[in-house]
Design brief:
The complex is a heterodimer of chains A (598) and B (547).
Chain A: H1 3-10, H2 12-27, E1 30-34, H3 38-49, E2 54-58, H4 65-70, H5 83-92, E3 103-106, H6 110-116, H7 119-122, E4 126-130, H8 134-144, E5 150-157, E6 160-166, E7 170-172, H9 191-199, H10 215-230, H11 240-260, H12 278-285, H13 297-313, H14 323-341, H15 359-384, H16 402-409, E8 416-418, H17 433-446, H18 453-458, H19 468-482, H20 510-531, H21 536-539, H22 542-549, H23 555-574, E9 583-587, E10 592-596
Chain B: E1 10-14, H1 18-29, E2 34-38, H2 63-74, E3 79-83, H3 94-98, E4 102-105, H4 110-123, E5 127-133, E6 136-142, H5 163-167, H6 173-188, H7 225-252, H8 264-268, H9 289-293, H10 298-319, H11 334-350, H12 358-366, H13 373-391, E7 405-408, E8 416-419, E9 434-438, H14 446-457, E10 464-468, E11 474-478, E12 501-506, E13 515-520
Parallel strand pairs in B: 1-2, 1-4, 2-3, 4-5, 9-13
Antiparallel strand pairs in B: 5-6, 6-7, 7-8, 10-11, 10-12, 12-13
Helix pairs in contact in B: 1-13, 6-11, 7-10, 10-11
Classes of the chains: A alpha/beta (598), B alpha/beta (547).
InterPro entries (chain A): APP-BP1 (IPR030667), ThiF/MoeB/HesA (IPR045886), ThiF_NAD_FAD-bd (IPR000594), Ubiquitin-activating_enz (IPR035985)
Keywords (chain A): Ubl conjugation pathway
Domain THIF-type NAD/FAD binding fold (chain A): 11-576
Chain lengths: 598, 547
């Protein structure tokens, strides 16, 4: 088996999920892991298995007993050796196609490196900051703010798993949302679809054809009749029964006429084919599709972003940008022009669902959709040329293939662009005005914490889980003051590089524990006052719970958030699927999850 | 955070695939040290994108045994037993299940999952079932009497297509693929694959569409030169007949609602004359990444069909000389897949249907479930976390929500959601039953069993019927038609043995109808070392690593 065949076989099961194009975008990425904690290593493991072409681990720590306890990808022989090197050695074997020079271990303090040579980090497509206190995360957030580098923070703090992402601008070619955006154009068929429907009106059909008519065609004709009777093409919820009745009567009457005039020499009528027909049932189940389909909000938002971009840059095409983004905006501009030229309609997708029909009618219907999808894509292709400047010799700076445009235009309702806010930690050194609004949003989500913590989570408001953001921030402030996390033993050997070391959590006396609880409570109180969050957080048992976590990682939670990070990293790097925007907080014990914008 | 009490818990991990690898790693890293692994499968190249306990050098070896030895390298103090066996084998009986604190299931097929589910319900051992598909997945606990079991909800049955659609009026690519698969099974498959085969038209069948072993035979595994010539000619004839002649006949008798098929020979005119092809000049497409996604030309497809037909015939005659020894289509058999690909593509051209790539054809015929490393990681982690929560009650936040159903979706903006598991379905055919463990020797007669055990021990009154579910459901006894059953025969003569489940049903007209299961579990001989078991011996705990 050649290397190429081997590769296609190894990645076969996942390419079936996202396609060869997304796979190759992903393979061409370079991922950097800052701090090889258990959660970070788990995330990197999945990304290497998935076939990332290059990765770097930056970690100044050495492997300790604590790592052996929670990280699968180190072993006894690694004790005392560079953690970055050990992890890289253990993980690189999981990508058979990795070039040796693309598996890089850097045994240095990540923050020192960021301060002394920031350009080191500029080459990465994605930086994963794993189980680092928020002061370290803040530095990376500031660094990535003005670059195209994707930043993901992953934190496993006891039972908690936190994932936060940031990317300046995320262009998504196909969000793959379910159910997908669809417009069968029943309320406003294009000429060929209307012609097809007209040629298949009930009065023109042979008796045997009534039951074989696809519901989509039947509904176009029924809607025309409705318009004739009512003078409108809309059907209110209350009118649905009336519409169904009208169509049933029409179909029945025409069927009976056709039966009466049926020529027996053309064959017997199948007894199964008598009204009511299944196609009407199917049509009524799809009655919501008879309404005019509005432009999706995502698309409207996308066009607004395009306008802002044009106002800012005076052009759609920017030769300085990565090629993928150039293509995205040129295609978006063509899409906007297409929508303008087509009365607010998106290009047609060739996909129609399975339905009761004779193969002849279904075939005709499918061909009508396929032909229109092709024609629309062709029109889109022509529209792109206005936005692509030419070189001195008259060659276009960007060559668009029909296939590429077709892929874009047939998914047009599922294209979108996301702009992320910087990762919110509540320990930022400088406060912007935007942050104030974010704090008040957070305060609303958290609300009041009752004395009985169980009541708080049993209400099952996922937003409540955002409460861990200020609590973990307070733990980080505690660590800055005491050089250890609350609940960790007062050990002299806490080194900044090994911040996630649960060995320190081993034995804490009851008195020390209670003292930590009170110290942390004071910090939480200060923080809540400062950020306008409810002071009930500070008086609640959640503070004690945070001390109990003692800053340690728990392998099963690390495995879960590591997997979540790997999924998110893939979505962001492949420009496919809807990624997290921007915070995920998982509390393993009650199984509560918060997903949303902070 | 490390919980010492977990060290002594015994966990049975069913399936060492995508989820299994994650579960085993997370169990070991969380402190579990007593693990039993079962998986019948061997390691395949296509596992390497997610099953990280395996590497290229392990290809072809047992998943169960390799995962055991990899785990032992990292955790030499662990006690791990591995079985490369079918979990449905009778040796994994009630006593076997009862030694575990929990079963974790990471399987890809409904049938085996149902079996493990049933064994857990009968034995009362908790089960956590994990499953993934693409970017979505689920982890679900099954606690007898407390939560919904795997059989409480109906699972989607595989889709079947109407025979007339497949034979005469395909409209979708999948119809053509099903047709090609039927053609393959008819000519190269075992006899049972021809049962209900839409292309097997009995007497009307064209003399070309018959099993290849009926055409000629290999002597001592060698196909004669004359037969080779005949087989080549036959390949061309089948091609001509399937994609042209037969369809022309069909077009002539066509109902006006059916699409006219385009004969391939008419389309090929000028490009290729198949009658001039010979084994030396005709090659099939390759199995490369590019070819997998390419759109092939008509002559390429025609050549591939003829070539693969010929190669399959020769292979069949030399390796599987009778129909009984022939094998069903296997998606990893690249020759067979090329045949299906070419045949389905040609048929798609006949009916002007969108053609699928070889890559998609494989997915459709192989029922391939898309699988991604990250999803398995999440589901594996969730499964183990639920297990830990279940086994420990040390946490102040513990409540009923701990036994959660966790679903992960890519689309609902929630990413992951946990909910309390549903209550058991009172109508469930599996967990709503009462199970009686019967240790009678099945050599007793049916009459004796009914009189002394059912009516005596179980005190069942009124009319009832007995049935067994393995290998397929059949009635063993019905008190209303007692004379029709061989009452004097022994249960073992009627197919009842150790590990057999007998279902008892009472008619609804009884005041309190009973339905229950009677599970035969013979007293075990005095425990011995597992050396008496034939077949694959389990790998026993390895001694401590030597330095």
């Amino acid at each position: 088996m050649s290397n190429k065949d081997l590769k296609s076989t190894v990645y076969d099961r996942q390419v079936r999920v996202w396609g060869a194009n997304a796979q190759s975008l992903f393979e061409n990425s370079h991922i950097c892991l800052v701090n090889a904690s258990a959660s970070g290593t788990e995330a990197l493991k999945s990304l290497i298995l998935t076939g990332v072409g290059a990765f770097t681990v930056v970690d100044g720590a050495v492997v300790t007993e604590a790592d052996l306890g929670k990280n699968f990808f180190v072993e006894e022989a690694d004790l005392g050796k560079s953690r970055a090197t050990s992890i890289v050695e253990h993980l690189k074997v999981h990508n058979l196609f990795l070039k040796p020079e693309n598996a890089i271990a850097v045994h240095e303090d990540p923050i020192k490196l960021l301060k002394t040579s920031p350009e080191f980090y500029s080459k990465f497509s994605l930086i994963i900051v794993s189980s680092c206190p928020s002061d370290i995360l803040n530095e990376f957030t500031a660094f990535c703010a003005n670059t195209d580098i994707i930043l993901i923070n992953v934190r496993n703090y006891g039972q908690l798993g936190i994932v936060q992402s940031f990317v300046k601008e995320q262009c998504i070619f196909d969000s793959r949302i379910t159910p997908p955006f669809t417009d069968f154009r029943i309320s406003n068929p294009w000429k060929e679809l209307r012609d097809l429907a007209e040629s298949l009106q009930p009065e023109k059909l042979d008796a045997s054809d009534h039951g074989r008519m696809p519901w989509l065609v039947l509904m176009i004709n029924a809607l025309d009749l409705w318009e004739k009777q009512k003078g409108k093409r809309t059907i209110s919820y209350q009118e649905r029964k009336e519409f169904e009745e009208m169509t049933t009567q029409w179909q029945k009457a025409e069927y009976e006429k056709a039966v009466a005039s049926h020529d027996p020499s053309k064959g017997n009528l199948d007894f199964q084919f008598s009204p009511p027909f299944e196609n009407l049932d199917e049509g009524m189940r799809n009655i919501h599709r008879l309404a005019k389909v509005e432009l999706p909000d995502e698309t409207t938002h996308l066009f607004r972003l395009l306008e802002e971009r044009e106002a800012r840059m005076k052009t759609v095409f920017d030769p300085q940008e990565p090629e993928l983004r150039q293509r995205f905006w040129v295609l978006t501009a063509a899409l906007r022009d297409f929508v303008k030229a087509n009365n607010g309609l998106l290009p047609v997708s060739p996909t129609i669902p399975d339905m009761v029909s004779s193969s002849l009618f279904y075939g005709k219907l499918r061909q009508t959709f396929a032909a229109k999808a092709n024609a629309d894509a062709q029109q889109m292709l022509e529209l792109t040329s206005a936005y692509i400047p030419a070189t001195g010799t008259g060659e276009p700076l960007l060559v668009m293939t029909f296939e590429e445009v077709y892929n874009f235009s047939t998914k047009a309702g599922m294209t979108l662009c996301l702009n992320y806010a910087p990762i919110l930690t509540l320990t930022e050194k400088t406060e912007s005005e935007a942050n104030a609004a974010r704090h008040s949003n957070l305060a609303t989500m958290i609300g009041e914490v009752p004395d009985q913590v169980m009541d708080y989570f049993s209400l099952y408001e996922p937003e409540h889980n955002a409460v861990w953001i200020p609590l973990v921030a307070a733990a980080d402030i505690f660590r800055q003051r005491h050089n250890r996390f609350p609940g960790q033993a007062n050990s002299g050997d806490v080194v900044s590089e090994a911040v996630d070391n649960p060995r320190h959590a081993a034995v804490v006396s009851k008195e020390d524990f209670e003292k930590d609880v009170e110290d942390l409570r004071t910090i939480v109180q200060e923080l809540c006052k400062q950020k306008g969050l409810s002071l009930s957080i500070a008086s609640s048992d959640l503070v004690r719970e945070t001390v109990r976590f003692a800053g340690g990682e728990l392998h099963s939670v690390s495995a879960i958030v590591g997997g979540v990070v790997a999924q998110e990293a893939f979505k962001l790097l492949s420009h496919l699927f809807l990624p997290l925007d921007n915070t995920f907080v998982y509390n393993g014990l009650p199984g509560v999850v918060f997903t949303g914008k902070l | 955070m490390f919980n010492a009490s977990l060290t002594h818990k015994r966990i049975f991990v069913v399936g060492a695939g995508g989820i299994g690898c994650e579960v085993l790693k997370t169990l070991a890293a969380s402190g579990f040290r007593h693990l039993t692994i079962i998986d019948l499968d061997t390691i395949d190249v296509s596992n390497l994108n997610r099953q990280f306990l395996f590497r290229k050098e392990h290809i072809g070896q047992s998943k169960a045994h390799v995962s055991r030895s990899v785990l032992l390298e990292r955790y030499p103090d662990a006690h791990i037993i591995s079985y490369q066996e079918n979990v449905k084998s009778p040796r994994f009986n009630l006593q076997f299940y009862q030694q575990f604190d929990c079963v974790i299931c990471g399987l890809d097929n409904v049938d085996t999952r149902r079996h493990v589910n049933r064994m857990c319900i009968i034995s009362g051992v908790p089960l956590i079932d994990g499953g993934t598909a693409g970017l979505t997945g689920q982890s679900k606990p099954v606690l007898k009497g407390k939560t919904e079991c795997f059989d409480c909800t109906v699972h989607a049955a595989p889709t079947h297509y109407a025979v007339c659609t497949i034979r005469a009026s395909p409209t979708q690519p999948v119809h053509c693929i099903v047709w090609a698969q039927m053609l393959y099974n008819l000519i190269f498959g075992p006899p049972e694959s021809n049962f209900n085969n839409a292309l097997d038209d009995g007497e009307k069948a064209t003399p070309l569409m018959v099993p290849i072993w009926k055409v000629c035979q290999a002597t001592n595994g060698v196909v004669s030169e004359k037969d080779r010539v005949d087989l080549w000619k036959r390949a061309i004839d089948v091609f001509t007949c399937s994609f042209s002649t037969e369809l022309k006949e069909r077009n002539e008798v066509l109902d006006k609602n059916m699409v006219q098929a385009k004969p391939i020979l008419d389309l090929l005119k000028g490009d290729l004359d198949v009658t001039t092809l010979s084994p030396d000049t005709c090659s099939s497409i390759d199995e490369t990444f590019v070819e997998n996604l390419a759109v092939h030309t008509l002559p390429q497809l025609a050549k591939t069909f003829i070539r693969t037909f010929y190669d399959l015939s020769i292979r069949q005659l030399t390796q599987h000389p009778t129909q009984d020894t022939s094998v069903l289509f296997d998606k990893d058999d690249s020759l067979a897949l090329n045949f299906i690909y070419a045949a389905s593509s040609l048929r798609s051209i006949n009916f002007n249907i969108k053609r699928e790539t070889r890559h998609s054809v494989k997915a459709i015929v192989g029922n391939i479930v898309p699988a991604v490393a990250s999803t398995n990681a999440v589901v594996g982690g969730l499964t183990v976390l639920e297990l830990i929560k279940f086994l420990t009650i040390s946490s102040p936040l513990q409540n009923d929500l701990c036994y959660t159903v966790v679903q992960m979706r890519e689309s609902n903006h929630r990413l992951l959601s946990a909910s309390a598991p549903a209550d058991p379905n009172p109508e469930c055919p599996t967990c709503s039953l009462t199970y009686h463990i019967c240790d009678l020797n099945p050599s007793i007669s049916l009459k004796n069993f009914v009189d002394s055990y059912i009516r005596g021990t179980l005190t069942i009154k009124g009319d009832f019927s007995l049935s067994v579910s393995t290998p397929s459901l059949r009635v063993l006894y019905d008190s209303e038609m007692e004379e029709e059953f061989p009452l004097d025969k022994s249960l073992s003569a009627l197919g009842v043995a150790d590990t057999t489940l007998v279902l008892l049903d009472q008619c609804c007209d009884t005041d309190t109808p009973v339905s229950c299961g009677i599970y035969f579990s013979l007293p075990q001989p005095t425990p011995q070392k597992r050396t008496t078991v034939s077949g694959g011996l389990p790998k026993e705990e390895k001694t401590m690593k030597t330095h």
